[in-house]
Amino acid sequence: MCEEKKIDPKGRTPSPEDRKKSEKRKWAIRGAALVIIILLTLLGLYKCGGSRREDSGVVIGAGVKEGEMNRGSENDKKEASPNAKSEMTVRMNGYPVFADGESEGSLNIENPAVNELHMSVEITLNSTGEVIYDSGAIPPNHYVDKDRLTKVLGKGTYEATAHVTLFDPEHPDTNYNSANFTLVIKIEN
Description:
The protein is an alpha+beta fold. It has one helix spanning 16-47; strands at residues 52-53, 59-60, 65-66, 97-98, 105-111, 118-125, 131-134, 142-147, 156-168, 171-187. A hairpin with a 5-residue loop joins strand 1 and strand 2 (59-60).
């Protein structure tokens, strides 16, 4: 049997203490590298649109952006009504298209500034009742132009229902108004 001996550059055989120090150094470097990787991953998720929380604790959806979608017409803008908590204005694409089941599609969901409450949208397949999208909270004057479905769908056309709910972020369990919209989702490839 051959016994392997490590020799340092000066031609000496490292002592057991030197080997222990070397192993400790290697593990410290690996640990530091792992911490850096985790921190960079978390930073990337935050910067790339990961979910975020408001002060009230409500989770804002990952794809939610501030402002109104570019519609081009001043006629689309309305003033808030005196019954703002019992009425809602929703803008949504009734025919979202996705290049494939894993890519972002044209959802175009908007909670206009005229709504005083947050909005959430849950999309379910009519054939199975399975939830395939959940927007998270969309504050007033925010929108989701493109986002991914939470379930990968194969090529085809799917009938679905978007359940839209208005709620107060201070009381997220109290729904002020809700509505269902029929959607036809197309997956091209």
